[in-house]
């Protein structure tokens, strides 16, 4: 009996020990679950903070793209390859050490002390937009996003390519009217109408001076029609009498006049070193190609670049220069209209232009858009003459820089003026310049008195009567209005090497 009792006590000890071990295992398991839960909550919180910072970086990139559309690329001066050299630049998009700070909280105080809800953005120049050699600029947008109390910032880099919207950059009128008293400096005229009269080196008529700064060739007239030295487009004044469809060079294809040899028309044709030599290779572009040139007629042997040496100008050539029937696409006009609506400059009374533009410039918008749709503008557009605006309707001493004579560029605000479904009559300041890009796709651009425009023009009809001048210098091109620039994102990456702990 004693042995049996002892065995029972031994069994009870084993059971107790087993129970304690089970309790310890359960306790350890519970502790592990608790630790994992806490860690998962911490990781989840970190992930949310990191994703929020990534979103903040995206918002910074969006702000930089909006800057490009509102200001162009003229103010960007920091080379992407050497950011340390830009520390003395003014604070903002061209200073990596003191970048543009974009608050992203509802109170608009992000990036201030104690509040990290923001993006810090700067834009590096990979290849500057610099026509005529570089008609596409490449830029890196660097954006550091920080949002919430998270443990890290996110560094993003987006590469964008910037190029003008496609249209014949220069002075364009589908048809051309007037007696011709226009001087065109360092840009070209494109048209499907007759250019008449053209100055032949003496006397009155439309004259061209210098080198076209965008296309990198002589400033000249380009028309699929005639160029005549007489009024009313007299046939006895046609500057060429050739056949643009012939595959044989002819002396008749060259006017053999220094003032006219750069022009191209529907009456031109192939030239060569032995026939029409005065118009053969008259100019060498920066890329090594020769001018005048154009699309080859059938059966002609092209050059290595696929073009021919010719004074002819055909519809195919006009298309090469970016022609579309209304200049820009419907989508691009809608984009300009939307921008004007957001800026408060859509169909506004002429008397309100100065105040509206002044407010935009003060807000840092150097490429404002003034947009009129005469089909919806009521009394603002007259039924007989469309819209009439004057240089004096704009803020004084604004959009008034003259062409640079030494290549030194000052900051240049440029206004884009669009008039749809109507004519535009512009009254300039006679002896002052106006810096703008004009689009009158459905009507006529009429000059009232004298005016001088530094910029580009696209119109359905162009009135070349009166005393007027057009010019396009390298400073205007550097400051090309952002409203008519195409910004295309080509690359996007997270810059892990520059992550901030």
Number of helices, counting only DSSP H or I runs of 4 residues or more: 5
Oligomeric state: single chain
**Global Rg:** 33 Å
Based on DSSP secondary structure assignment, what is the total number of beta strands? 21
Helical fraction equals: 10-25%
Order of helices and strands: HEEEEEEEEEEEEEHHHEEEEEEEHE
Q: For the record, give the distance between the C-alpha atoms at the N and C termini, rounded to a whole number.
A: 75 Å
Structural class: alpha/beta
Mean pLDDT: 88
Low-pLDDT segments, ≥5 res = 33-47
What percentage of amino acids are in beta strands? 15-25%
Tertiary shape: elongated
Largest sheet composition: 12 strands, parallel
Outline the structure in words.
Residues 33-47 have low confidence and may be disordered. With 501 residues, the protein is of the alpha/beta class. The protein is built from five helices and 21 strands. The longest helix has 70 residues, at 2-71. The strands form four sheets. Strands 5, 6, 7, 8, 11, 14, 15, 16, 17, 18, 19 and 20 form a twelve-stranded parallel sheet that branches. Helices cover 21% and strands 25% of the residues. Among the domains are: 48-164, no CATH class; 171-238 and 325-484, no CATH class. The chain is elongated, with a radius of gyration of 33 Å.
